[in-house]
Amino acid sequence: MQRELCVQYLTEISASTVQWLTILNQQSPEDPNTVRQVALQLQILLKICTHVDFEEESSPPIETHQFNSQPIKSPHPIVGVVQQVAPVICLTAERFNANENIIKDCCDIFNGALRNTSEEFLPFLQPYSNLLLSSYSLKPQAPILASAAILASMYRSGEQAQIIAPMTEELVRQSLVAFNQDLHGNTELVAAFFHAMKRVLNKADPVMLFRLDAMLESVIQCAVASLQLPEIPAIKATCSFLSIAAYTPRSTMKEPVLVLFTLKRHCPQEFQATLSQAVHESPKTAGVTPDEKTKFLKRIVNARKRTDLVPIANDFSLLARKLG
What we know:
Elements: H1 2-24, H2 32-51, E1 63-65, E2 68-72, H3 77-95, H4 100-116, H5 125-138, H6 142-154, H7 158-179, H8 187-203, H9 206-227, H10 232-242, H11 254-266, H12 268-281, H13 290-302, H14 306-320
Antiparallel strand pairs: 1-2
Helix pairs in contact: 1-2, 1-3, 2-3, 2-4, 3-4, 4-6, 5-6, 5-7, 6-7, 6-8, 7-9, 8-9, 8-10, 10-11, 11-12, 11-14, 12-13, 13-14
Subcellular location: Nucleus
Keywords: Nucleus, Transport
GO cellular component, one term: nucleus
């Protein structure tokens, strides 16, 4: 009886919140008061989906089949809440897409329910992935990528992978567009992207790996764009994804040098050709003479240790910036 009363109470609270959000979604998303009210309603739903649980002794009698001794569990109450609020959450995310805090709350509501009911969440998997894609297409944001990483790690095989794999592929495609634009100052998005890709690679099954093979070039292009950013966190996140060996860097220069050394060791011919092209054609090395470029490439090729590359890269960096 106590459990039934709790479920009824949750349903009433959720229904009231849905009504408020429906009204607020009709108002201007740029109005500060509206944004505050939306955030308040989302926090109520977030607490329900994240913190509400029931003691075993409060559960109703469990049905059993005469030919099956295994108990048939009743659905988790959060499932009913998600069914009730999912449409308005999707609409709220669309209306207030410019507000990253609102987007984060919308994602966290689904993520909270997901952690409590991973198996029963399956009917919401496709709508949730659609929400992430549509929100990301309007404005790439770190919370969306973080949520995608959670989905990729929890649903990485079977029929679920057929939903997660194309979602990941599309997020990579949209991220490449964003990375080719000005990401200066948006290191949180860079870090979230490579953290998500790292989780996907670590948890990937054959279906996901097949997709990753097709989009790997786009991921590497994102990494190349990220390594050109001046922010240290962006470089760290990128190199953490690219690095093969475990290594704790002590300076900004050591991180791209680790990537250089890894590529030099594992694919030397492709590395030399790509590095030579980058050094000779990049606008950022326009002030370096051809002889200095040739000398730099020769020193890189002849370097035998990772630590040898650090002063070489530092010297060339100073030349390119006219500080040497």
